[in-house]
Design brief:
Layout (H helix, E strand, L loop, with lengths): L11 E4 L6 E9 L3 H6 L2 E3 L14 E8 L6 E10 L10 E8 L1 H13 L3 E2 L4 H8 L5 H12 L3 H11 L2 H25 L13 H27 L1 E6 L6 H9 L17 E7 L2 E7 L9 H16 L2 E7 L6 H9 L4 E6 L15
Parallel strand pairs: 1-7, 8-10, 8-11, 11-12
Antiparallel strand pairs: 1-2, 2-6, 3-4, 4-5, 5-6, 9-10
Length: 358
């Protein structure tokens, strides 16, 4: 059975904008009885006029929200009315454009609950839109990705899916498989005929075309996940190798303390940067070395954990100090995910070791 919190027979309401100070805030309501419930709360400007339940769809109404129990005015609002099957959810709905005052909005939501509205769960409006055929599953997933995208590129990729890019590719694969099925049936019905020269009657061509489309979609998944979820890049290495200076340069802020003294960074520091449209979680870690200090030792333990979980590790070496046995062990263990960086080349003579960037 479906969880009670997602009972589609309920009339639901929720903020569609953040609960923060702003000129406007939007409260979205949806459900078969939402218009009748709002009749008790919405008073048209001037005190006269047709109630919301008798208002045609795609109409804006100006009025006041009132508390039917207390009789006071809660806010002056604009109500946008939608009729089934129009609107976002494909059912009757009203969007209330209120003033963006957080305490007042909380009171309005409480009054809506008293009037019989249930607070919508996360994603429930989109869930109803999917159930009512307003969007397919790829579009429904894209809505959440648009909202949570960390870069403009990620938002644009999700918007492309919302506009039907993935669905069109899936339908193309489906069309090719239907052609293949029809060709097989043709062969079974007329086995004595030869179709080798008839490309349209050969199911292998349609199957290959469908496989090509599905392969393209499959290959695009990993790239899409990277743009949507981002990657973790860790700056690691021995103490005083220049990790914090590089971190500050990449994030364009003085986030980490840069000092000539060893062991300045005792814990990892992170920031998100946009690199080519990819959200990168950049982590500056404590210098890896043997230490007796319990606080620094804990920082090094956390640094090793971040290093193990990172998608990419930039391992910095102080060119003036050279490679240590500990550095070699790390480079060997993480060689597939590591970019070794020969840093402070102006302080040392000679060329970096093979495979190092400088």
């Amino acid at each position: 059975m479906m969880d009670r919190s997602y009972d589609t027979s309920d009339d639901i309401a929720a903020l569609a904008t953040p609960l923060s100070e702003s000129a406007l805030a939007i409260i979205r309501t949806s459900g078969a009885g939402c218009l009748e419930r709002l009749d008790r709360l919405f008073r048209p400007s001037g005190g006269e006029g047709t109630p919301l339940s008798q208002t045609a769809g795609h109409r804006l109404r100006v009025g006041e929200l009132i508390d039917p129990d207390q009789g006071g005015v809660l806010d002056q609002v604009v109500a946008a009315v939608y009729r089934k099957p129009a609107g976002y959810c494909g059912e009757d709905g009203v969007e209330l454009f209120c003033h963006g005052n957080p305490p007042a909005l909380k009171v309005v939501l409480e009054v809506l609950e008293k009037a019989g509205f249930r607070g919508a769960e996360r994603g429930e409006f989109t869930y109803r839109a999917f159930l009512n055929g307003k969007m397919d599953l790829t579009r429904a997933e894209a809505v959440n990705e648009i909202v949570t995208a960390k870069t403009f590129t990620a938002q644009q990729l999700a918007l492309d899916r919302l506009c039907g890019a993935v669905q069109r590719r899936i339908l193309e694969a489906r069309r090719q498989l239907i052609l293949a099925s029809a060709a097989v049936e043709l062969w079974l019905d007329y086995p004595e005929d030869e179709f080798e020269e008839d490309r349209a009657a050969d199911p292998r061509h349609a199957i290959e075309a469908a496989a090509g489309v599905l392969s393209e979609l499959s290959n695009s998944y990993r790239v899409g996940r990277i743009y949507q979820e981002g990657v973790s890049v860790v700056l690691a290495g021995p103490t005083n190798a220049g990790k914090s200076a590089l971190f500050n340069h990449l994030v364009k802020q003085e986030r980490s303390i840069v000092s000539p003294h060893h062991g300045t960074t005792r814990d990892y520091i992170e920031a998100t940067v946009n690199l080519g449209g990819i959200p990168v979680r950049l982590v500056d870690t404590a210098g890896i070395r043997d230490t007796e200090h319990p606080v620094e030792a804990e920082g090094i333990r956390r640094s090793r954990r971040e290093l193990e979980e990172a998608a990419l590790v930039i391992y910095l070496i102080d060119a003036a100090e050279g490679l240590s046995e500990a550095d070699l062990r790390v480079l060997e263990a993480e060689h597939e995910r590591i970019i070794p960086l020969w840093n402070k080349v102006d302080l040392a003579a000679g060329t970096p070791p093979e495979g190092f960037l400088s």
